[in-house]
DNA sequence: ATTACTTGTCCTATTTTGGTCAAATATAAG
DNA sequence: CTTATATTTGACCAAAATAGGACAAGTAAT
C-alpha cells in the first residue's frame, strides 16, 4: 500500500470526489490525481489535514509518506535492496544508542 | 560500515594522505575530510575513480553510497524502520515483475 | 453531454549538492 | 616545548535538482 493508494481509498470510502478533497486541501484536482497515483508526493503538512478529515492515524500516513520518499531514491537502482539493508543497520545501530 | 568509513579505510590501507587522494579526485582536502566523516556525500561519479585507485568493487561502493542517501532521508524520523520495510516491500513487489 | 479523473507541459521558489577557504585542532617529529 | 604536517570544522556559496504546484487538453465513466 502506497501513500497515494491510501489517500484514494480513504477518499472513496468517504464518498468524496477528488474535487472536494482537492478543495479542502487547497490544491488543484490535477495535482491530487497525481498524488493518488504516486506521480507526485503530497506536502507533508497536508497529512495532518488528511488524518483529521478521515479520522485516520497520522503515524500511518507518515510512514507511507516516508516510504514513498525512500522509494523515490532507489527505484531505478539495481542494488536497492542491499542499500536498504545497510541503511537499516545504520539506523538500528544508532537507535540502540549504547550510551 | 558507511561509505565515508570505507573510503577512509581504503585510503589508509594504501598509506595515502588525504591531500593525495583529494588531489587525485580533484577536490579540496577539507571536503574529503567531510566525506570520510559522512558529513558530505561524494559525487557518485567519483566512486568509479575510487574503485580503480584502490582496486575495489564498484558495486560495493555504490551500495554504501546509496545507503547513505537513504539514511539522510530518514535519520531524524521516528518511524524510519517501518518506512524502510514498506519501501522494501514496494521494491520487492515491483522487482518480481509479474508480467 | 456531464462529471470525474488523468496526463503532459510548464513554472518558480526552495532545497540540496558539491564544493571552497580559513581557522581551529590533532598528531607526530625533532 | 616547538614546529611541521595532517585532519577537522564552520561559514559561506553558486549551480543544480527537487518540490509543489497550475493549467489545458485528453480520457473514462455515467
Give the strand content of chain A: under 5%
How many E-type strands of chain A? 0
Quaternary arrangement of the chains shown?
A: homodimer
Helix content of chain A: 55-70%
CATH class of chain A: Mainly Alpha
Shape of chain A: elongated
Low-confidence stretches of chain A: none
Explain this structure.
Two copies of one chain form a homodimer. The longest helix of chain A is centred in the middle third of the chain and has 17 residues, at 58-74. The model of chain A has no long low-confidence stretch (mean pLDDT 95). In chain A, helix 2 (18-25) packs across helix 3 (29-36). Chain A has a single domain, classed as 434 Repressor (Amino-terminal Domain), CATH 1.10.260. By secondary structure, chain A is mainly alpha-helical. Helices cover 70% and strands 0% of the residues of chain A. The radius of gyration of chain A is 16 Å and the shape is elongated. Chain A has helices spanning 3-13, 18-25, 29-36, 45-53, 58-74, 80-95. Chain A contains six helices and no strands. The N and C termini of chain A lie far apart (37 Å). Chain A binds chain B through residues 1-2, 59, 62-64, 66-71, 73-75, 77, 79-84, 86-88, 90-92, 95, and chain B through 1-2, 59, 62-64, 66-71, 73-75, 77, 79-84, 86-88, 90-92, 95. Chain A binds a DNA duplex (30 and 30 nucleotides) through residues 17-19, 27-34, 36-37, 39-43.
Amino acid at each position: 500500500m502506497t501513500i497515494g493508494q491510501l489517500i484514494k481509498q480513504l477518499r472513496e470510502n468517504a464518498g468524496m470526489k477528488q474535487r472536494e478533497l482537492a478543495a479542502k486541501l487547497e490544491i488543484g484536482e490535477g495535482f491530487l490525481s497525481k498524488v493518488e497515483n504516486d506521480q507526485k508526493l503530497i506536502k507533508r503538512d497536508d497529512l495532518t489535514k488528511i488524518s483529521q478529515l478521515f479520522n485516520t492515524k497520522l503515524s500511518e500516513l507518515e510512514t507511507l509518506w516516508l516510504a514513498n520518499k525512500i522509494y523515490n531514491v532507489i527505484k531505478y537502482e539495481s542494488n536497492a535492496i542491499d542499500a536498504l539493508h545497510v541503511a537499516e543497520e545504520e539506523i538500528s545501530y544508532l537507535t540502540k544508542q549504547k550510551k
